[in-house]
Design brief:
The chain is an alpha+beta fold. The chain has two domains: about 1-60, no CATH class; about 60-125. It is built from four helices and three strands; from the N terminus they run βαββααα. The chain has helices spanning about 20-25, 60-80, 85-95, 110-125; strands at about 15-20, 30-35, 45. The chain has a three-stranded antiparallel β-sheet with strand order 1-2-3. β2 and β3 (about 45) form a beta hairpin. InterPro entries: DUF3268.
Length: about 140
Amino acid sequence: MKKQTIRCPYCGSPAILKDASYIYGHHSSGGRVYVCSRFPACDSYVGVHQGTSLPKGSLANRTLRKKRIQAHQIFDQLWRKGIFSREEAYRWIGDKFCLQTRQAHIGNFSDYMCDQLIQEASKVLQNNLIPLGMAG
């Protein structure tokens, strides 16, 4: 099977697999990232699952990375506060947004989908009388 090239969704350039220190410098905790070959002019990258070359999602610019972090902070409370198990919480994403399990990952979400998840997860937290906080 031919290796698929990962392309930047912003500029179309190929992504390059690099050591995470390329992005994070001495703050890196190891690992690797796919980085747009036009970095830093194009500020698009994504982390890689440890011990593999599989991306954790799609390449994202600073704005989308921040939005995905925010979505995770709200969403993770659904299972951390015991409303759902972790598995049930991801199944809930799939059911709520008509996604297959493999599609129900915040690392692949667009800005719009992150906003939708934040809104819907916030409703579940409020319905369970859990104050909205950004920390898990």
